[in-house]
Q: What sequence folds into this?
């Protein structure tokens, strides 16, 4: 089985983001990791190839040179090799991202399955799997939390909210966007980390891949979410403070 | 396909919305979407759905400003069990009606159909937006897991956006509603088929759709204690959430978790009970309109970041709140 996993190099969700300029941030001050939802994708792909007994898991990243470190830590989860399409654009638009990933995969081999995470935690676009599927003319399911691959077909489940789930059937190859619940991503052990250091990571320049690819971030401005300045405290006994709260909320038309 | 006409009063920009209907009922979260699309009367709003809606739903839509209700139909393909066909029919309708913008809700359904439409049309999609400025052609959306807000430009036609449920409050602005049917002429593009919907036994309101949320943190102590919050939520017409510490302790399922690794919500009112106020929790509920903290520690960090606070034991405050609300209701 030839499986491609699209993996994004993103700031750690626990990191403090320091903004600068109109739509930029101090990337140097932040720890970068693999997009958390992409880890479910890597784990699923590795498990499928392990079960199949043959094939490879190829990680594909569009990002800066530093993304090599993220690729290495994900290779330690058992993936075979990596492809890094280099761009210095921090917020590559989603159309260009999908085209770059498509071109890189197409140049490399023919996928039996393509995985992505359901959303990138930095730009929060949740559309890459769909655009990729369109470019490959393949079926797509996103936010998948259960997956069964059979001979030539896939059955995927996605959460609809309020505990309801949708069961989707499609032919393979297909594109699957993964989310929490699909599996438990493994913590690489020391020997796996050492092994990953020797795995191949092929670097490509975005323009070499396709000169027509021109990332156009459509981000006009980045601002911190306004913080509240502190609570107005309700005073008195439990009954009194509850009554005061209800009154206040009613005045503000919240109740 | 699209021309740059100058608009007169009669020739207002048309904005299409895709309605969310569940078991033939129009969900309340649609009305905020109508308000977002209406742009205080600058846009004509056309509402699309694959379902048949009754008079009550039609009257409600008219009251918030929908002037055309259009049922999407097709004889050539199945649009109810195929998201690909549904998206293709929406794309065709967008072209046919000359829609400048198409708005949906950032729910499981809306996220899926709009991303499929964006891929078909090869246009940008502004996902999970909180505000729209049609004049400036921009939208504001969450970025960096709720830590920052990004202003994105809407340069393409049609502009595709999904709006976070409850982020834009519904405002009534009556219009005269006409209903019609649009027969989409699409070849089936079904690549995935919905085989089954697995429903959970207890039909609770989804957190992301709830106008009011009451959350219990780690000190809830055991799963059964959430009944106390559920009782309060029932009086309020809301849903119950949990912090990650409570989920990790096994007191609540992950589907109830609010925060960076759980659900992102924007209710009108968020009551956090026994929640310390960690940044990761706030990443998921910061955009709530009003946040109330109930915590027994007067120095808990939550009080620095919420609107109203009560210092007290949630096991005393919440039942007192429920009781007071019940008494209010009874008159
Ligand atoms: C990568 C990452 C992702 C995370 N994602 C999330 C997420 O999605 N959601 C999330 O919630 N957290 C998340 N966290 C965890 C977060 O950092 C906090 O640990 C968590 O939110 C704490 O939960 P809590 O407030 O319920 O519990 P605690 O921190 O234990 O706080 C309990 C609070 O309740 C008060 N209290 C105790 N007893 C009572 C009582 N009887 N009545 C009233 N008040 C009482 C205490 O004073 C205290 O303030 C994440 C952390 C990391 C590192």
A:
């Amino acid at each position: 089985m030839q499986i491609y996993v699209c993996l994004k190099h993103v700031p750690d969700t626990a990191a403090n983001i320091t903004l600068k300029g109109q739509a930029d941030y101090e990337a140097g001050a932040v720890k970068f990791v693999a997009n958390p939802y992409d880890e479910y994708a890597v784990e699923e792909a590795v498990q499928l190839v392990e079960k199949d007994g043959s094939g490879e898991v190829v990680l594909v990243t569009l990002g800066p040179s530093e993304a090599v470190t993220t690729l290495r830590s994900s290779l330690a989860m058992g993936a075979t090799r990596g492809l890094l399409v280099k761009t210095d654009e921090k917020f590559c638009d989603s159309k260009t991202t999908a085209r770059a990933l498509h071109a890189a995969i197409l140049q490399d081999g023919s996928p039996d399955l393509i995985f992505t995470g359901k959303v990138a935690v930095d730009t929060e676009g949740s559309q890459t799997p769909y655009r990729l599927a369109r470019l490959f003319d393949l079926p797509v399911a996103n936010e998948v939390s259960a997956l069964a691959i059979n001979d030539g077909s896939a059955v995927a489940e996605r959460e609809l909210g309020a505990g309801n789930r949708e069961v989707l059937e499609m032919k393979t190859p297909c594109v699957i966007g993964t989310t929490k619940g699909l599996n438990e991503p493994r913590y690489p052990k020391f020997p796996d980390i050492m092994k990953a250091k020797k795995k191949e990571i092929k670097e490509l320049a975005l323009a070499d891949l396709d000169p027509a690819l021109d990332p156009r971030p459509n981000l006009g401005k980045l601002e911190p979410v306004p913080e509240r300045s502190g609570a107005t405290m309700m005073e008195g006994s439990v009954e009194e403070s509850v009554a005061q709260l209800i009154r206040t909320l009613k005045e503000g038309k919240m109740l | 396909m699209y021309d740059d006409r100058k608009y007169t009063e009669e020739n207002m920009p048309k904005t299409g919305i895709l309605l969310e209907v569940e078991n033939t009922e129009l969900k309340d979260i649609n009305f905020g979407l109508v308000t977002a699309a209406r742009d205080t009367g600058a846009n004509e709003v056309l509402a699309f759905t694959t379902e048949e809606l009754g008079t009550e739903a039609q009257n409600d839509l008219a009251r918030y400003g929908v002037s055309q209700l259009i049922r999407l139909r097709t004889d050539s393909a199945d649009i109810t069990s195929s998201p690909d066909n549904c998206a293709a029919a929406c794309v065709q309708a967008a072209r046919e009606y000359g829609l400048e913008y198409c708005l949906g809700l950032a729910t499981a359904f809306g996220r899926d159909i709009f991303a499929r439409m964006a891929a078909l049309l090869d246009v940008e999609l502004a996902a999970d937006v909180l505000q729209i400025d049609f004049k400036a052609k921009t939208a504001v959306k969450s970025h960096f897991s709720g830590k920052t807000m990004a202003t994105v430009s809407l340069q393409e036609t049609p502009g595709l956006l999904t709006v976070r449920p409850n982020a834009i409050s519904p405002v009534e602005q009556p219009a005269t509603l006409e209903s019609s049917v649009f027969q989409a002429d699409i070849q089936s593009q079904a690549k995935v088929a919905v085989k089954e919907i697995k429903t959970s036994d207890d039909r609770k309101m989804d957190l992301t759709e709830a106008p009011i949320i009451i959350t219990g943190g780690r000190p809830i102590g055991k799963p059964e204690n959430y009944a106390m919050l559920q009782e309060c939520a029932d009086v309020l017409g809301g849903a119950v959430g949990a912090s990650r510490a409570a989920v990790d302790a096994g007191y609540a399922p992950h589907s109830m978790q609010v925060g960076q690794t759980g659900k992102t919500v924007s209710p009108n009112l968020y009551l956090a009970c026994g929640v310390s106020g960690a940044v990761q929790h706030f990443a998921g509920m910061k955009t709530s309109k009003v946040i109330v903290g109930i915590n027994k520690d007067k120095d808990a960090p939550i009080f620095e970041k919420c609107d109203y606070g009560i210092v007290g034991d949630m096991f005393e405050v919440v039942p007192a709140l429920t009781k007071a609300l019940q008494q209010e209701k009874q008159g």
Q: What stands out?
A: The domain at 2-225 of chain A is CATH 3.40.50.620 (Rossmann fold). Chain A touches chain B through 75 residues (CB under 8 Å). Chain A has a mean pLDDT of 95.
